[in-house]
Specification:
single chain; 323 residues; mainly alpha; two-stranded antiparallel sheet; 12 helices; 70% helix; disordered N terminus; membrane
């Protein structure tokens, strides 16, 4: 399996097994994010400020990377760190920050269901930028696989889960939101296109940067997350009144921060040694984990559409990576 196909060439059997385990762990963490957030709710609301969770996640990733260099888990570059190579990571942090904030603003110009369906277009934008910027050509079979991946995400967004009326006395906020009339404004459509473009660009640009620089991954992450902490610190300071930085975090909230931090580190390894396409498959496969955990923990019911989406995801993986 080559780098552009999402694998790491030349790996032995044991190292390939570790690579597969890492991808499975990342898939599980992606899928657990939404259910864990739901378990954090107090009286139907998240008790901590969203910007606090993002800032603490970035700070945790930064500290873990610094620790890995200090204790020698990764080799320190000879001659000291080349700080001039840190500057390009400012653009990565800016792109990720813009992408995360666009998700919030998009909700003002369209209903949640429309957003969930149309946001799957970022799979196409990422694949297009991947081919243009990294000069990789996808075969017709791989292109079909990515198209099926988009369709699978759309199917899941349309109706992969439904509320269990027998176990929920009141519909959850997500169910109330889903009853909104389908709508999207012209400005919302433009912002959605921008969101899909930035989502793909942030992924492909970061991959290109990490592969071109011959630096330890931990050091590259320190560059990236330093800018991420500074950016999110400014966003948190300007977010207005609300809970304090550490206020409202229960055990579930701490688990959200830790899992997202670890998943971010795993994804950086995917970008360094795998590809942006691999990341797309991880995110899409996490829908299955999300649905199963939602059914088990939040008493939601799996629908026939979910099983169709799961089948399409499996077929897409087979088409893209199968011989």
């Amino acid at each position: 399996m080559s780098v552009e196909e999402g694998g790491v060439p030349g790996l032995g059997r044991h190292r390939q097994a570790r690579w597969t385990l890492m991808l499975l762990l990342s898939t599980a963490m992606y899928g657990a994010h939404a259910p864990l957030l739901a378990l954090c709710h107090v009286n139907g609301r998240i008790p901590f400020h969203p910007s606090s969770a993002v800032l603490l996640t970035e700070l945790t990733k930064l500290l873990l990377c610094a620790l890995s260099l200090l204790v020698g888990w990764q080799a320190w570059p000879a001659g000291g760190p080349p700080w001039r190579q840190a500057a390009p990571f400012a653009l990565s942090a800016l792109l990720y920050g813009a992408n995360n904030n666009l998700v919030i603003y998009l909700q003002r110009y369209m209903d949640p269901s429309t957003y969930q369906v149309l946001s799957n277009l970022k799979i196409g934008s990422t694949a297009l930028l991947y081919c243009l910027c990294l000069q990789h050509r996808l075969s017709a079979r791989q292109g079909l696989a990515l198209l099926l991946l988009m369709i699978a995400g759309t199917c899941y967004a349309v109706g992969g889960l439904q509320d269990s009326v027998n176990t929920l006395p009141e519909p959850p906020p997500a169910a109330v939101a889903s009853t909104m009339a389908l709508h999207i404004t012209p400005l919302g459509l433009l912002l959605l296109i921008l969101y899909c473009f930035i989502s793909g660009l942030s992924s492909v640009y970061t991959e290109l940067l990490m592969k071109r620089q011959r630096l330890p991954l931990a050091l590259q992450n320190i560059f990236l997350y330093t800018f991420g902490v500074l950016l999110n610190l400014g966003l948190h300071a300007g977010s207005g009144p609300g809970p304090g930085l550490l206020e409202g975090f229960s055990g579930w909230g701490v688990l959200v921060v830790l899992s997202q931090a670890l998943n971010g580190l795993l994804m950086s390894a995917v970008m360094k040694h795998g590809s942006s396409i691999t990341r797309l498959f991880v995110v899409s496969c996490s829908l299955v984990v999300n649905a199963v955990l939602s059914a088990a923990l939040l008493h939601l019911q799996l629908t026939a559409t979910f099983f169709l989406a799961t089948l399409l995801i499996g077929l897409s993986v087979r088409l893209y990576y199968g011989s």
